[in-house]
Amino acid sequence: MKKKRLSVLLLLLCVNIVVFAQKKTVLEGFAKYKNASQITLFAIENGKVKECVTTSVKQDNSYQMTFVPEKPGFYVIGNKQKNHPIYIKGGEKIHLDLFRNEVVLKGKNTRENRALYQWEKYVKDLRVMSGKRVAHEDFFPYLTKFVAKIDSVKKAIKSGNPVFDELFYKKIDYDVDYCAMMFLLSSRKPPRSDWPAYYDIILADEKFISDELLLLPEGLSTLIMYYNYTYYVDVPKEGEAFFTNTRLRGELLLYLFSIRARYYSDYEEFISENSKILTEEQKERAKVMAAKLHPSFVGRKGNFTYPDVSGKDVSLSDFEGKVVVVDVWTTTCGACFAQHVYLSKLEEEIQSKDVVFIGISLDKDQQKWMNVVKEKGLDGIQLYASDKSQFAKDYNITGVPRFIVFDKKGCVVKEEAPRPSDPRLKEMIEAELKK
């Protein structure tokens, strides 16, 4: 009896080993471009690449890597600067010769990758045109002819794997959308009347019901492109608010947080505003990002003393009992002057004796600052701190324009407040005035 049990266990073990071995995928080929010392396979996670396996390129320019994929799906191969899509199921052998701008399949390969690279070859010219400065009179007719053939292209390119084909056909639609939006957003905006009808269906609701876009190479980049496109067309809601799928919306919010947040208070505000939208996994990623942010200044007592145009020293403490909005700027900053227009409107709208607006210059040349203040007729309190001031160090100011709001006690409300062009600054000031 024991021998039978042992035999069964050995048989099961052997079966498991065979099944495991069958899941191994072998990738091989030649890297036929300069300085190709390593080849990396990247998995797709949340619409972005994540390093999976790296191998060295041999002296004869050949490479080979073996790995066990966690699940079937899209990957990319190459390096972080230049890579190419590939579909991996597990248990197959794939031969890819990598050139600088293309991939050539060799040998038998898989039906999925043959279908994928039929499409990559077909869409190549559209991609090239969308990234070049061609006239819209040339691009729009080409796009119209291209999309007219999409249905027939899908029928002609089939792998026979229904799971792959369903996602692959969505990739085709996303790829065409990306090219169309890329051209429009990177060119001088053509008259709306000249846009092809295709632009009217780019934001069709059915494209954003699921979060499958995040399974694809360039998934997040495409999502960001859709996000930017919402500001170009007439839709009920713009930006991240357009997306009803919570995971897609959460990924956009995380992306915006990653490029905007500088202080830990930004993280606290981000979580407070978006906790109902973000998944638990997205919250964990936000927490990881937050660990790299500057410590928060919110609630910290502030103080500074700098001379005004007449040479008189002015301190933050002089305005205790008032809300203080500090505008940090320089005479060489075009964006600063653009914000001054909105700042003037904001001052007119608030009309309160309990709020003070102070300009602090970080210019190297004090005389130049004084000249600009007089030439531009800048009203209100204007102070000179210099580019190497303690104020710039205290508040980690590495770029301008920058706005800081202090409460009536002289404590920081927001170390990097919204700009005057953003209605949130007015809301922040009004909220402090009510306290």
* Percent of residues in beta strands: 15-25%
Whole-number count of domains: 3
Structure summary, number of beta strands: 15
Contiguous uncertain segments of 5+ residues: 1-21
Shape: elongated
The value of Rg in angstroms is 29 Å
Strand order of the largest sheet: 13-12-11-14-15
Question: Explain this structure to me?
Answer:
The strands form 4 sheets. The protein has a 5-stranded mixed sheet. The chain folds into 3 domains: 22-107, Immunoglobulins (Immunoglobulin-like); 122-290, no CATH class; 305-433, Glutaredoxin (3-Layer(aba) Sandwich), CATH 3.40.30. The longest helix has 25 residues, at 162-186. It has helices at 2-22, 111-130, 136-148, 150-156, 162-186, 219-229, 246-260, 264-274, 280-290, 334-350, 366-376, 390-394, 423-433; strands at residues 25-30, 38-45, 48-56, 62-67, 73-78, 83-88, 93-98, 103-106, 305-307, 313-315, 323-329, 355-361, 381-384, 402-406, 412-414. The protein has 435 residues and is of the alpha+beta class.
